[in-house]
Amino acid sequence: MAVLTTRSGGAFDRTPFEALVKRRLFYTPSFEIYRTASGFVGDTKGLFDYGPPGCALQANIVDTWRKHFVLEENMLEVDCTVLTPEEVFKTSGHVDKFSDWMCKDSKNGDYLRADHLIENVLEARLKGDKAARGVSTEEDKEKDNDPANAKKKKRAVKDVKVVKLDDDVAREYEEILARIDNYDGTELGQLIKKHDIRNPDGNNEVLPPVPFNLMFKTSIGPSSGSIGYLRPETAQGQFVNFKKLLEFNQGTMPFASASIGKSYRNEISPRTGLLRVREFLMAEVEHFVDPEGGKKHVRFDEVENMEVLLLDRHTQLAGNTETKVMTIGDAVKSKVIDNETLGYFVGRIHMFLEKIGVDMKKLRFRQHMANEMAHYAADCWDAELLTSYGWIECVGCADRSAYDLSVHSKRTGEALVVREAREHPLKIEEWQVDIDKKKLGPKFRKGAKAVEEAIEAVTQQQRETFHEILKKDGVITIDVPGLPEGKADLDKSLIDIVRRTRVENTRDYTPNVIEPSFGIGRILYCLLEHTYWHRPGDVARGVLSIPPLVAPTKVLLVPLSRSPEFKPYVKKLSSRLRTLGISHNVDDSSASIGKRYSRNDELGTPFGITVDFDTVKDETITLRERDTTKQVRASVDDVLGAVVNLVNGTEIWADVVKRLPEFVGQSEDE
Amino acid sequence: MAVLTTRSGGAFDRTPFEALVKRRLFYTPSFEIYRTASGFVGDTKGLFDYGPPGCALQANIVDTWRKHFVLEENMLEVDCTVLTPEEVFKTSGHVDKFSDWMCKDSKNGDYLRADHLIENVLEARLKGDKAARGVSTEEDKEKDNDPANAKKKKRAVKDVKVVKLDDDVAREYEEILARIDNYDGTELGQLIKKHDIRNPDGNNEVLPPVPFNLMFKTSIGPSSGSIGYLRPETAQGQFVNFKKLLEFNQGTMPFASASIGKSYRNEISPRTGLLRVREFLMAEVEHFVDPEGGKKHVRFDEVENMEVLLLDRHTQLAGNTETKVMTIGDAVKSKVIDNETLGYFVGRIHMFLEKIGVDMKKLRFRQHMANEMAHYAADCWDAELLTSYGWIECVGCADRSAYDLSVHSKRTGEALVVREAREHPLKIEEWQVDIDKKKLGPKFRKGAKAVEEAIEAVTQQQRETFHEILKKDGVITIDVPGLPEGKADLDKSLIDIVRRTRVENTRDYTPNVIEPSFGIGRILYCLLEHTYWHRPGDVARGVLSIPPLVAPTKVLLVPLSRSPEFKPYVKKLSSRLRTLGISHNVDDSSASIGKRYSRNDELGTPFGITVDFDTVKDETITLRERDTTKQVRASVDDVLGAVVNLVNGTEIWADVVKRLPEFVGQSEDE
C-alpha cells in the first residue's frame, strides 16, 4: 500500500487525529464512565455517542443525502420500525443466513471473528517477513523521519515477530488476503488448521468456526412467545410496504423508496472504533425497476462519461487488488457493471461522496465475489474509502433482483407485483377447458370440487392430448387424487377442450430492486480522516477541512477581546446570522484570538468573523478562512453576503479574496 | 366533556379522519401484510411506519423543534445509543421500577394493563348510567344530527349496558377516574375486587395486578451474559456524558444538552394507534441548573406574562379536573409551578406547540400527582392535547432534581459535579488532624494505612473531644477496624488536632435537571386531529390545515391539463422552486384539477400553483390557498416571491390577497 497522506502532503498519523476527535467531542465511547467502574459487567464495545460537532456533522451529511437522493428524484421516504417480528426475517432469510463465522479460543473462552483472525495473523506474519528482509514501505520511511513516531515504531516492531517467510508462503498469504471475503466457514476452518493460526492474545488454539447470527433478539409484548429482532438493515420495512408505496405513487414505475434510520448488528468483537459498531445510522434507497429491457435508466447519460476506479471480482479471485479507471458507460457496455441502473447509482454515489468532501483519490468501487455476496444479491459494488485501517466499505450498491418481494409475497399471499397496461395486447393461443358444472356437481357430489381442480391443473400439452382422445373415444380418464378411486371418467357431455385465443391487456411483474445502502457513521469517520491535517511543522495545530456544506458550524463569531464595547456588535451579528439561517458559535471566552481560531479549526468551522476596534470605528468586520488562514475586511453587509455565498456554494474563497480587501492584522500566534 | 369540534365548527368524526390518514399514507401499521398472513405468529401491535407525508411532517416538526430549542439556546445536541448495558438502568432505577401493573385474564390468558382496564370498565358503566337516565352529552346531540352517525351510534349503544347506577356509586366512579394515575398495584387490585371489574372481552375475572417491566431486553455480544436493554428514554445517555459536555461547554453553567432519537417501551396491550406505541421518536432537553438560588432563569421575563391553562395536583386529588388560567409568572410566584426554570420551559413548550399548528384551545398543562410521578422526579407538568381519545400527554416537563447525576456518580465513582469559583471565598473554621507520617509508618507498618483512614474519618465533633483528651492525657485511643486489636493508641508525637480556618475558593455541586421531553409521534397524531376538517357539507373532501412551516409539502404544482404546451413551464417552475428550497409535488396526472387539489388538501399542502392557457400567453400563473380555496393571479416572480414569504412566515395569505389580483377561474368541482 502506498503511503497514506493528508491534504497537506504529510503522512497521516492516527494518534494526534484521534486525540483531536476526542478533545472536540466528535464522538466518544458510550457509557465510558461505566467501562472503568469497579464491578461493572457488560459489553459496551462497538457503541459510540456523538457529541455536538459529530451530531451536527451527521445531521448535515444526512441532510445532503436527502437532497441529493430523495428530493432530487422524488423518492418516497418512509420511516419504518426497527423492531421486527421473527417471521419477517425468517422469510427474508436473515434468521438462517445473516451470520458471521466465529471461533472460540480453546482455553480462555474469547470469541473471535474467523476471517478477521486470519487477516490479522497473516498480515502480522507478512510484516515480520518484510522486517526480516529489511524492506520498509514508503509509509515506514516517512514515519522514520518524524521523531514523534520513534517510540511508537519501536513498540510496533516489538509486536511483530521478525521471521522471514518462504517466497511461496508469502505469496500464498497475499492471495488468501485478497480473497478473504470469499471463504465460507469450512474453508476458513481449513485455513486456520493449515497455517496454524492462533489467538494472538495468548497464542491458544481456536475451535473450528461456527456461525453466529448477528441480529439482536428480543421479545415483543408481555407473552414471551413473540420473538422479535432489531433490524440489521432498513430494507425489509420498505419491501413489506411495497404495495402501499406503489399505490401512493399512483401505480407509476419505476420509483424508489428511501429510508434513514438506525440498524443493529451484534458484531462478534468490534475493535476499530466507528468503523465496526453494533448500532449505526443507515440511509438506504430501494429503487424498483422492471426487470425486462435490461434495467435501463432514463438519466444514465448524466453519469455515462464519469470516470470511476473499479476493482472487479475476477481480479480479486485471481488473488490481486489492482484497480482500473473506466467510464461508467464503458463499464456497463462491457458488462463489468451489470446494468444501467446499477451504473447510474454508482455514479450518483460518486457525486455524493465528492459533494460532502471525501478525498476522491481515496475512493474505489469494489465488486463482491460470489461467496461474499449477501444471500439476496445478484450483483454488488461497494464504495470503499481508504483510511489508516485500509480500504473500508462505506456504501453498498446491490442488485437484489426480485428476491425480497418474491419471498414476502410467497409467505404472505399478498401480490407484490406491478400491473401494467400492455401497449400492444398480448394474444395467446391456448387449450381451454369448458366444464358443464350443472352436470358435474350431481355426478361427483362431494368430489366435484376435486375433479374440477384436477382438470384446471392439466398442462397445455396434456390438454392437447386429452382433446385428441376426447375426439376419438368420447371420454377421457383423469387422475383425481382427491377421490377415493383416485381418478374420474369424463365424457363429452361433461367436458370439452378447445383451442382459443386469449387476449392479455395487462402484464404483471415483480420489480427488481437496486439498492444503494449508506453507512453514515463510516462515511463520517472516513471524512474526518480525509479532511484532517495539521499546520506545517506543528502537530498540535490540527485542522479539519470539512466543506462548508456539511461543516458542523459554519461561522465562528469572536470579539477580539472581552472589552464590553464589542458586545452589542457581536449580539447584532449573531442575530443577523440566525435570520440568515447560518449556524454559528460565539466564543467570547478570555482565550487569545489565536487559541479561539485554533479550537475552531479543529472543529472544522470554515469561517471566522472578528469584531475588533475598527468595527467600533467604522462598522467593518474581518472574515477569516480556515484552510488558508487568510482574512479580508469589509462592511458587515459585504461580509455577510460573502458568507451566504460561501455556505450556499455559489462562490468560493478564491473569488472572495479577489473582490474584498485583504486584511493582515491580528496575529494567530498565542 | 364538551363536544370536540374541528376548526370549521363541526363535530370531529374519527372515521373519515382515519380513512384520510390511511388513504394518504401518513402512517400505517407495520408489517400489515404479515398480520393477515396464515400461520403468522408474532406481536406487531403498537408498531407503525410513516409513509412519505408522515415522514416529511415528522422531519419538519423535528426541524422546528431543533431550531426552537437547540439553536435558539445553543444547547449541546448529542446522539447516544439506544442499546444500553443493564448496569446503567439498574443504577437509574429503571430495572426495578420502570413497570406498569398488569392483570392476566384468569381463563383466556389475555394480558391487560390494570389502570386501563379499570378506566374502560368504569367509563362504560358511567355511559350506561347516562343512557339509562336519558342524559345525552352535547357531543351525543351533535352526532345525532349527523345521519352518517346513526349506524355507529346504534352499535355504540349495543356495546354499553344500559344500567342506572346509584348516585353515590356514579360519583365514586368519577372520583376514581380523576385519580386513576395515582394508584399503586395494591390499590388497583382492591378497586378491581371492590367494583367487580372483569375483562370486557369475555367477562372473565382477572388475577391480581403484577408489575411488568416495560424495557425490551436483549443480549449484547456473543456471550449470553451481557444483558442490555433498549432505552425507554434518551435521558440516560445525556447524563452519563455530563462530564464531557460540561467540559465541551468550557465549564460554563447553566447549559442544556438535547437529543432526538428513538426510544422503546414494551407496552402491555397497545390499542390507540399512534398514541401508544412500542417504538417512538423522542426529543428531550436536559437543562442543568444550579440548585441554589431557587433555580432562576435568565430569560424568564420572556414567558412571565404568558397565560396557560393549568390543572394542578391538588385539584386532581380532590377528585376533579377543573383547570384554571394563570400567567406563568403568577403560577411560579404562588408556587403552583415550583420554580422559574420549570416555568420557563412550560412557556417555551406552549410557544412550540402553537408554532407547529396545535389548536391552543385543546392544550392544558397537568401536574403529576405524587404516586404518578416517575421515580426520579421532584415535580412534573405534562402538556396534554385534547383528542377524540381524550386528553393525551404529549410533552412532559419534569424537575428530575439531582437524582440521575447522583446515582451514576455514586455507582461509577466519577465526580459528576460542577466546580465553580466562589465570588467570595468561603472561610470554614474546623478541626484539622496533623499526622506525623514518618513516625506512623514504622510504628504500625502494614496497619498504618488503616490507622490513617480511621483518623481522617473522625467527625468534627469527635475531633474536638479528641483535642481535649490529647491536651489532658497526651494520648488518645481510636477505633481502627482494620487492625487485629481493633484500636490504636496515638500520642502527641504522632498526632495533633488543631483548630484552623480553611478557605474554599471553589464550590462543588451536583446540578439539578429540568427535562422537557417530547413524544414526537403523539404530537404528530394530535396535530393531524387538530388540523383536520372537511369542506362544508362534504365529508369526502377532507382538509388538513397544517401550517406552511411544518406541512409535508409546501406547494402543489399542476398543469391545467396534460396538454404538451404546459410542460416546459412546469419544468422551469419546478427547477426554480427547488433552487428556492421549497418542497413541492408536481401532479401532471390526468385527473381533473379539482381532484388534484382535493388530493393535496388531504395531504395538507398549503399552496397550489397552476399553469394554464394564460401562462402560455402572458407568463402569469395562479396561486391557490388550501384553507380558503381562494386564488390570485400574477407574474411568475410575484407569485414565487409571495410563496417564499408565506413559507418563511414573513407574510400571511390575507396580505397576499390584498396585494395580488384575485383570480376566479378554474372550477374545483369535478
Explained architecture:
Chains A, B: It catalyses: 2 ATP + H(+) = P(1),P(4)-bis(5'-adenosyl) tetraphosphate + diphosphate. Chains A, B: It is found in: Cytoplasm. Chains A, B: InterPro entries: aa-tRNA-synth_II, aa-tRNA-synth_II/BPL/LPL, Anticodon-bd, Anticodon-bd_dom_sf, Gly-tRNA_synthase/POLG2, GlyRS-like_core, tRNA-synt_gly. Chains A, B: Belongs to the class-II aminoacyl-tRNA synthetase family. The structure is a homodimer. Chain A contains 25 helices and 28 strands. By secondary structure, chain A is of the alpha+beta class. Chain A folds into four domains: about 1-85 and about 230-415 and about 510-545, Bira Bifunctional Protein, Domain 2 (BirA Bifunctional Protein, domain 2, 2-Layer Sandwich), CATH 3.30.930.10; about 100-210, Herpes Virus-1; about 420-505, Signal recognition particle alu RNA binding heterodimer, srp9/1 (2-Layer Sandwich); about 555-660, 3-Layer(aba) Sandwich (Rossmann fold). Chain A is globular and about 110 Å long. At the A-B interface, helix 2, strand 2, helix 3, strand 3 and strand 4 of A face helix 2, strand 2, helix 3, strand 3 and strand 4 of B.
